[in-house]
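task queued by scheduler; priority normal; single chain, no ligands, no partner chains; default sampling; output format set to structure tokens
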Amino acid sequence: GLIRSTAATPVYSQGILIGSIYLLEFDPLQGALFSSLQINILIITFALEIFVILFSLLFSSSYTRRLRRIMSSIRTVREGDYSHKLQLGGSDELTVLGNEFNDLIERLQVSEMKRSRFVSDASHELKTPLASIKLLSDSILNNDMDIDTIREFVADIGSEADRLNRMSEKLLTLSRID
């Protein structure tokens, strides 16, 4: 708690060194002031370190929680729930990522609806010639018909089979393009 100050100066007389003066001083007031400053700086340093650690923990837990929400949303969409929306809030990179994720989900949802509509329409288009073939073949088997009517029905069955063949070729072409 003391400050020790020393000083020395030479003493000259007519340009000749005749001695020196040594000063020694102990200053308890400045010593106490410096000790107090050191303690205050140490306390402030520890307080700042604790604040930085707490802030880091808070920030990392918030960041991790938001990343978990993104991962959970990815799993939900992977299961097939395209109506799921991710709400993160904020204006950082994770929010931008969440918005891009939501845009991707909307496009997937539209694509899935188009695919479903296409499958439904294609199924309906395939059922029509199949129903005609079934009706014509049942009519041939269950009714007594003359040979000209049977030939006409068989020609119609061939036409419907050709129609099915053209549709399946178009579906295969679409599948390859996709």
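post-processing summary
- The chain has a mean pLDDT of 88.
- Strands lie at 3-13, 16-27.
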